[in-house]
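Escalated from tier 1: NAP holo job.
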Amino acid sequence: MDIFSVENKHIVITGASSGFGHHFAGVLAARGARVVLGARRTEKVQARVDELNAAGGQARGVALDVNDAASVDAFLAAAEDAFGPIDVVINNAGVEAGAKTYLTIDESDWDYVLDTNLKAPWFMGKRYTERVIASGQGGGNIVNIASITAYRTIKGQFPYAVSKAAMVKATEVMALEAARYGIRVNALAPGYILTDVSRTLLESERSQTFVKGIPMRRYGEFEDLDGALLLLTSDASRWMTGSTIVVDGGHICGEL
Ligand SMILES: NC(=O)c1ccc[n+]([C@@H]2O[C@H](COP(=O)([O-])OP(=O)(O)OC[C@H]3O[C@@H](n4cnc5c(N)ncnc54)[C@H](OP(=O)(O)O)[C@@H]3O)[C@@H](O)[C@H]2O)c1
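Tier 2 regenerated the structure:
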């Protein structure tokens, strides 16, 4: 028996129109999971869904704005209509505010980043838990996508780093409170991988020196996250809750 199997698991992924979410959907669908992809750019979501279904997967796309309560409710309802009770929610949608410090962000930057990266995963988790309790399905699983900025400091990613550090704490507290409903809550904290979220830094002049701070001397690739993704979404992690797994080529233990 493959303890990392996700076959037939119903897994919903926020922010699946690009980057990690787009990749995660492919990894999980290829292993037999039934996946529901949500994001605002519905044409990108639909293109990915078509690709996954053409490859023999079971995928659906649903418009989702994680900052809109009605949209979150509609997303969860549409996912259940498609594939029944949801086994796993991956809170992956996230944004950054550009290369700004605590001094140069304004209130709208703060709200934009904190609402999407912190408030929305909490709200999604709350609504999901309510549905798990109401349906009597007997359990569930939430995977939050955090970041190594939760653990180390870097100039110019102020609200982003704050949101991810708080997400790690939210993961722990939610794990504590959700256990009685049979729901596990864990997080994955990736290091730097080139996507729209990391582009400002990774395509800057600073990038060549920055990479030298990574003990394994390279930025990540999407596939580097697959092991942790399959661990957290499968029953292989059945006695894990409140944990955050760092996958970063050793970046957070790079020498000072
Ligand atoms: N790349 C890295 O180095 C890195 C490292 C650590 C952690 N992360 C985290 O990984 C996650 C995915 O980011 P990424 O790197 O893959 O960047 P990305 O390609 O920009 O993906 C971000 C996703 O979030 C979605 N999103 C943003 N706001 C949303 C909203 N209001 N409602 C629904 N979806 C929304 C976007 O979709 P739409 O615009 O279509 O809505 C997009 O699909 C983020 O939480 C990020 O913080 C990234």
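Residues 38 and 115 are 17 Å apart (CA to CA).
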